[in-house]
């Protein structure tokens, strides 16, 4: 059983380490520079970091930031669930908690970009109330992306 809460300072390093391990397990190991940038992002004053814990271990994280151009909305900049805990409802519970906490900050809605090929993430976002928008783009590596909003 997991619990979800706004991350404390003691959660940030384990959360980033979990994100890094999840990227490695997906065959997409992040560069040292990217890991350093994520460490910075989770510590930014406007960041909302939400974690799911199983006992004392961080097993999932969501990072929300103010949406550029509309301070009444949040941008979900990253979500990870430990590979061993995926497809068990952890991600949905994490996003639901993140939405409650974002609402308490005054963010009325949120959006997220995800690769078109990432059908697992799309299913997660759809189950959390997100809908695909007409906004499309590409990752720095050329992968097609789409923005989802709720």
Automatic annotation (TrEMBL):
<dbReference type="Pfam" id="PF00583">
    <property type="entry name" value="Acetyltransf_1"/>
</dbReference>
<keyword id="KW-0012">Acyltransferase</keyword>
<dbReference type="InterPro" id="IPR016181">
    <property type="entry name" value="Acyl_CoA_acyltransferase"/>
</dbReference>
<feature type="region of interest" description="Disordered">
    <location>
        <begin position="1"/>
        <end position="35"/>
    </location>
</feature>
<keyword id="KW-0808">Transferase</keyword>
<protein>
    <submittedName>
        <fullName>GNAT family N-acetyltransferase</fullName>
    </submittedName>
</protein>
<dbReference type="InterPro" id="IPR050832">
    <property type="entry name" value="Bact_Acetyltransf"/>
</dbReference>
<dbReference type="InterPro" id="IPR000182">
    <property type="entry name" value="GNAT_dom"/>
</dbReference>
<feature type="domain" description="N-acetyltransferase">
    <location>
        <begin position="1"/>
        <end position="150"/>
    </location>
</feature>
């Amino acid at each position: 059983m997991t619990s979800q809460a706004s991350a404390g300072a003691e959660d940030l390093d384990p959360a980033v380490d979990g994100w890094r391990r999840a990227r490695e397990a997906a065959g997409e190991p992040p560069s040292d520079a990217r890991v350093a940038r994520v460490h910075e992002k989770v510590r930014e004053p406007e960041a909302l970091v939400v974690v799911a814990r199983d006992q004392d271990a961080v097993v999932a994280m969501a990072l929300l930031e103010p949406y550029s151009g509309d301070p009444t909305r949040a941008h979900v900049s990253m979500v990870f669930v430990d590979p061993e805990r995926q497809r068990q409802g952890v991600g949905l519970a994490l996003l639901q908690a993140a939405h409650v906490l974002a609402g308490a900050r005054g963010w009325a809605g949120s959006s997220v970009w995800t690769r078109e090929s990432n059908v697992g993430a799309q299913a997660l976002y759809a189950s959390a109330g997100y809908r695909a928008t007409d906004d499309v783009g590409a990752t720095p590596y050329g992968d097609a992306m789409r923005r989802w909003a709720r």
